[in-house]
């Protein structure tokens, strides 16, 4: 990727927000112009740029929210990227925007289209002089957007159990539903079927291992994440990422979401 200069700082939201927002990630970097792959994960992505825009096939955005997805989102850039990314839980879509995460699945939309204070949020972040101040502004603005949330208990339980690695058949038995009914209700809430969500969660675990300070071998990652063999790992990675693990690492690391930086003091 030819990284010239990179600044990356992460922070935790205020405790009141953490059921809905799990992490803030501030970035400022210069590289050669190119593309970045936004990879599938269990989080929705809220981005506020401090300079420029996020350029997607759907258009150019100064602020956006992207839903859960099962393939890479291709982002083009001119070599300079500066902004803040917020990782939202699926419940965060209901708390912040008043809609199930399923309504945003597979798409990215401007925050203004979600009746969010996009302009105010961007102005506050751009006038702040430190990452700590920017994260504090996020706490205040996002905290002011929170509304009461209700979610079907069985669907929320299914998400929790999938994250623990429990199989879909066992989860259906636990909640007393057929697999078909569970799949339909789960997809309506999240936009992914339970089987596909489990696949994305496994991919995310593998991705986190490859981004860690101590990078294991691909064989170790495949075994630790439950892939049947290296070929299975490569096929699944290519389907969800659009490149093999080796190709992705050569193109993307280090990047904004590269090896994990220390958290900013709070």
From TrEMBL:
SUPFAM superfamilies according to UniProt: Homeodomain-like (SSF46689)
PANTHER family associated with the record: BLL1074 PROTEIN, HTH-TYPE TRANSCRIPTIONAL ACTIVATOR RHAS-RELATED
Protein name: HTH araC/xylS-type domain-containing protein
Entry keyword Transcription regulation: yes
InterPro entries, per database record: AraC_XylS_family_regulators, Homeodomain-like_sf, HTH_AraC
Domain HTH araC/xylS-type, residue spans: 152-251
GO molecular function per UniProt: DNA-binding transcription factor activity; sequence-specific DNA binding
Domain of life: Bacteria
Native source organism of the sequence: Lentzea guizhouensis
Pfam annotation, one family: HTH_18
Keywords: DNA-binding, Transcription, Transcription regulation
The keyword Transcription regulation is assigned to this record: yes
């Amino acid at each position: 990727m030819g990284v010239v200069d990179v600044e990356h700082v992460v922070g935790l939201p205020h405790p009141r927000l953490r059921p809905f927002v799990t992490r803030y990630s501030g970035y400022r970097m210069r590289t050669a112009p190119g593309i970045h792959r936004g990879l599938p994960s269990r989080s929705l992505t809220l981005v506020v740029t401090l300079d420029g825009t996020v350029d997607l096939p759907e258009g150019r955005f100064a602020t956006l929210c992207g839903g859960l997805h099962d393939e890479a989102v291709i982002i083009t850039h001119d070599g300079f990227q500066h902004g803040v990314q917020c990782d939202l839980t699926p419940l965060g879509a209901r708390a912040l925007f008043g809609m199930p995460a399923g309504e945003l699945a597979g798409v990215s939309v401007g925050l203004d289209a979600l009746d969010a204070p996009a302009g105010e949020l961007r102005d506050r972040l751009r006038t702040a002089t430190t990452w700590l101040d920017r994260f504090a502004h996020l706490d205040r603005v996002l905290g002011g957007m929170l509304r009461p949330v209700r979610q079907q208990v069985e669907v929320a339980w299914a998400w929790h159990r999938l994250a623990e690695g429990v199989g879909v058949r066992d989860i259906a038995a636990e909640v007393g539903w057929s697999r078909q009914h569970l799949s339909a209700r789960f997809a309506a809430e999240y936009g992914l079927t339970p089987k596909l969500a489990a696949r994305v969660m496994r991919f995310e675990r593998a991705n986190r291992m490859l981004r860690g300070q101590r990078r294991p071998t691909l064989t170790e990652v495949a075994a630790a994440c439950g892939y049947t063999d290296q070929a299975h790992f490569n096929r699944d990675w290519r389907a969800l990422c659009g490149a093999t693990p080796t190709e992705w690492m050569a193109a993307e690391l280090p990047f904004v979401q590269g090896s994990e930086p220390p958290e900013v003091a709070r």
